[in-house]
Every structure is written in structure tokens, then in C-alpha cells.
Amino acid sequence: MTDNVVHLFKDPPPATDPAPAQATPIAPTPAAVPPQTPDARPQPVWRRSGRAVVRAVRDERTRTAARVAVRHGSYVVGGTRIVARRAWDGRTAARYERMIRAAEAAGNLEAAAEWEERGRQYRAARHQRRMELLTSPERVVKNAAYAAGGTVGGLLLLGVALAAATKQPGDVVTPLMAVVEFIEWLVVIVTVVWGPAVAVAPWLALSGLWALGRHQQAAPQWALPAQQRGSDAGAPITPSIVVTALRDLGIAPLRKAIKEMGDAGAAMLSPITIAGCGVEVDVTLPSGVSTQEVQGRRRKLAENLARHEHEVFITIPQAARTVRLWIADSGALDEPIGPSPLVLDADLRADYKKGKAPWGQDLRGDAAALSLYQRHMLVTGLSNQGKTAAVRALALWLALDPTVEFRIADLKGAGDWAMFDGIATVLIQGPTDDHVIQATEMVESGVSEMERRLTAPPGTAFPPLIVLVDEAQVAFMCPAVDEDKRPYGGSKATSRYFMAARKIHNQGRAVNVLLWQGTQDPTDQNLPKLVREGAHTRASLALGTESQSRMALGDKAVDGGAAPHLLRQGLDKGTLVVASDGIAIPAGQASITVRTHYIDTEQAAEIAARARALRDGVTTLTVLDTDEPTDPLADIAHVIGTAPRVLTQDVLQRLATTNPGAYGTWTHADLKRVLEATGAEPYKSDGRMVISRDRITRALTNRDEGGSASATQ
Length: 713
Description:
Elements: H1 45-58, H2 60-91, H3 94-105, H4 109-166, H5 174-215, H6 239-247, H7 252-260, E1 273-275, E2 278-284, H8 291-295, H9 298-304, E3 312-315, E4 322-328, H10 341-344, E5 357-362, E6 367-370, E7 377-381, H11 387-399, E8 405-410, E9 426-429, H12 433-454, E10 465-470, H13 472-476, H14 496-507, E11 513-520, H15 529-532, E12 537-540, H16 546-553, H17 555-559, E13 575-579, E14 592-596, H18 601-613, H19 632-640, E15 645-647, H20 648-658, H21 660-663, H22 668-676, E16 683-685, E17 688-692, H23 693-706
Parallel strand pairs: 7-11, 7-12, 8-9, 8-10, 10-11
Antiparallel strand pairs: 1-2, 2-4, 3-4, 5-6, 5-14, 12-13, 13-14, 15-17, 16-17
Helix pairs in contact: 2-5, 3-4, 6-9, 11-18, 12-14, 19-20, 19-23
């Protein structure tokens, strides 16, 4: 076999062949000769098949075919359901029971009584029919016998008459035989037709069910054709649409009043005005209809207006028997709002007393700003709804006022507040019991500062101090106890955190010591009643139940239309319902809905850097030391940090924050007494007493070189 192999390779020319000019060999390109690597192996069949299946599933034609299949299948299923329900309603009193429940729910007892009477009459007539069925077999047999005898007798009489006329006696049975032959032909016809009829009947029934389901559009919205999917969604709001939506709410007195109005209900409506990304209209309800009845049917009203539930808000203005409807443009609330002014304006400054923090936009699209002056704050909501970002945006704005001191405890510990290092005098980050103990002592240091300020001479001005606890529910639920068996968490008077928060709520506002808390999923256990009611500004993101909304905002706000439990979890991130006198709320309303600007971590770090530049080298403590000091001079140097000089008042505050047990009661005289012995006593600069970092450093150096022992208290 090997002798028959033909070699097609061209032999190279001999080396001695004198070639005047040899052509340069051309190297094969990568495209011509693909590289042979160990991994270039054929793919397994199962992998190629799997990829082919994935491509087929993702293909738009496959999706279109799936929608068509689901749509027409749903038509059949929906038509069957409609026929079954109609049959059930026709055979039972379910229709009357349903109408009775609807009338009772609407509070229309007259209609309920009328439907009850109709149901009783239906049941009586049905009972009568069923009793008659018991005697119907006897009547059917008797009537059949009479009919058969009469028919045969009639045919025989007809045959006698025919025989008399034709003189043929056999014609007596001719009519009877004709009927027999007719019956025979009917049997033949039925025999021929029966088979095809049985085969076609199910398909005819299926076609009928399909047609009924198609007429009623009994298919999911996503499977319907584009021209049938929400054809009226987003339609402009007109007076007739509003009146029709109110008429079809299922409130019998309202429906009756609209029918009796000569203007078809137009007199109930105020002019429809454009309000931000929607429209607003006041509805004066007729006598006998309460505002609460309309509020309780928000979802149905939204559907009647061809809107989603979150696109319709119902509030109660000052006018009696009036509801105010705000109806968003379809899809407008799903569009993001613009960036925060803190991000856009690098020169923006804050003013704690006179300014307002730019927080977001209300539903009208107007800027929503919040005053933080002497207001305790509580922000709550479900997890992962933007609570920390909402609180942090306010703190970042206030940080641009260098007179404001922050003491922050982040009991989540995910780094959301890390950019406040160098701004806050205390920054605790972590979720453990040890972190809760530190946070509690931080709040208690705020109480000590508050009490010191309260005992100061009248008229003394105090810089604002913000004590901020994020994820405060962790503190309330902490099981740790101290040496005296007092729990750190809990909602009783024995709880250290609870009592510290209550004390600041009771008296802190008067001396600019404020408590901000952020918490999630509020309950009576992780957010006690006395604490939540001590906040002046209460805001809530999406919540699960109405009872949680009442905990977050209070009964007055919820009764006035506030409904954070109706916000969409996951879709309405950063949307808050706010109850506060620090924000502009329309007259007659108890709350306002705000869509907050989102400031991400990178942007927050940039804003914090601007705020840090406005301050004099703040030293941020991450652990509070509650033991007795062994070296006051070193502690003073520590709290001064890198600033060239610090006000004596600020040094006292920082010492009290560092170790409230040792320095919480210190006065200017105590500070002066310690420093005079070292030659680093306070002095005046621009009319105010300050302490120099260089003097403190020199005093420490001289003391260490002299080998003196640390000063003790």
C-alpha cells in the first residue's frame, strides 16, 4: 500500500543551483495557519447544544412566540373560568351574596337589604322548582303515553279518510308508515352526522371559550398585544375621568349623588391644576360620604384613573368633607431626580440656625429643604431603602457649618460614615455589643454636656452638638449589662441607652444638643414609644404595615393621609414621607412626600473633604476611655490634634467626650490649674481664650526630658 502513495511536496532546489535572485519566503499569516494549542479541542456536544438552546430562548422571535402561546392559552383558560362562574352564579345564590357583601362594605344597608330580599326570592323559586322535579317523571310518562296514543289515533283517522277517498283499504296505515319511514331517515342521518359532530364539538366549544376570553382580555398584561395593553394608561386627567373614577369606587351614596346632580358631578371638583409632574384637584364630597371612605379605596381609585397605586395620593385639606387628589403623570415617579446641590456647588456653605438642608424634591417637583435648627430627628424604614443615605445627606450639609460638632455611632459598621473621620469628634463603627456599649457611653457624654450647658450662666451661647446613632434598633435590642446589672438596651427606665435618649429629648433642644436616630422596621421593642415621640422631625421610607407607619410618623400624620406603608419596597428607594414643622407642608396636610437626592459614597467623601477643610484639625475618637486619666497633659495634646490653637471651650468639650467620667465636670478653672504649672496656660487670641499646640508640645517635651512623673488627678 505504501508503494502507491504519491508525494505532492516539491523538492527544494539543490544548493549548488546558481539562482540570480531568490524570492524571500513569505511566512504564513495567523489567519492562514491557525495556532495549534492544547486547548483548541472540539467542544462537547452537550455544551454546543446548551449554547444553541440558550441562543434560541433569548431570541426575540422565541419570546414573541411564547407571548402568543401564553396569550391564546390564557384566553381559553379565562373563557372557561368566566363560563364556570356564570354557570355557578346561575345555579346558586352566589351573585346575591356578593352584592350583599359589597353593599355592606360600602355602608349602604338599604341596598344590602334589597339584595337580601332578592336572594330570598331566588331561593324560594329554586326550592319550588326542585319540589316539582320530584313529580315530573310521573307526569312525563303520562304525557308521553297521551301524546303517543293521540298521535297514532290521529294518523289512523287520517288513514281511514284516505282509504275512503281512494277506495283502497290498505291506505289506512299509509300515514302511519310515512311517519315510520321519516323516523328511519332521521336515524340514518343522525348515524352519518354523529361521528363528525362528536369530533368537531370539542373544537367548537374550545373556539367559543377562546372567543369569550379574547373579548374579556383574560390574559396577562405582558402577553397582550401592544395596542391592547393599557390603551388608556397615561391618558390626560379630565373632570369627566375624575367623576367617573369616583362614581365607580363602590360607595353607594357617592354614586347616587353623582347620578342626581344635574351637572353629572362636575360641581364637586375644583379646577384641575398642574402640580409638578402631575395634576391636583380638590373634591368636595356629597353629604353622607366621608373622606375616610375615599382614602380607603386608593388602589381602586388609581385603577379607575388608569394609574398605578403609587401614582395617586389622597390628602385631607382644611376644607370640610374634602379630599385632595394628586395624580402623577404615568411613569413620572419612576424617573430619577437630579443630583444634590451639595454635589453640584463646591462653594455651598451651611448655616445651622438660618439655613435649610437641600434634601430632594416633593411630588410637585419643587425643591424640598429641611430646617435642622433645634430639632431632634428620627428616620425609619425597611432595610435597604436608602435610610442611611437620607440621614447622611443632611449630616453632610450640616458639616459645612464648622461650628457644628458631631458624635456619630454607626451600629451597622459597613463604612457608610467613614468619611466623617476628621469631622466628627467621635466615630464608632460596628454592630457588636461592645460597639453598642461605646455608643451608649457616647450618648451619655452628650447628656453630660447638656447638663453642663444647662448649669451655665443665663444667656450663654452654645455651639450645636449632633449626637447621631444610625441603626439605633441595635442599641435598643442589645442584651449587655454593666457592672451594676443595668442593661444597655431595652425600653424601660433601667436601660442606659433608653434613658440617655430620653434625657436629650427632654432638655437638649434648649442648649443645642440634638439626637438624630436612624432605625429600621420599627416595633415597640426596637423603637419605644417615648423615644419615637420625642423627635421633632419624623420621616419614614417604605414600611410593611399601617401600624408601623403610625409608629414612625404618629397617628395624626397617618390619619391625614401619610402612607409610607404604601410605598413600593425596592422601587421607591429614597422616597420619604416627612412629618415636621421644619419643612414646607401644604396647608391642611400633616405630612409631605419627598424624593431625596442620592449622594453615593464617593461623592460623600468629596463633600466631607470640603467640610474637613473648614475645621481646625478635629481629632476623631473611635473608642471612648471611661477610666480615670493618668496624664491630663497628654490627653489635652491628644484632643488638640493638629490644629495650631483651639478654643478652651472646645478643649473642655473634647476632653469630656474622650473620658466623661474624668473630665465631664471640668471647668475653665480646672483646665487653667493643670496648664499653669506646665507653662502652657491659655491665652487670648482675637478676644477669645485659646490653648496653643506648640506650648503643649513644648511642655510635654520638657517634662519628658526632665524625667518627671506623669501628672495625676
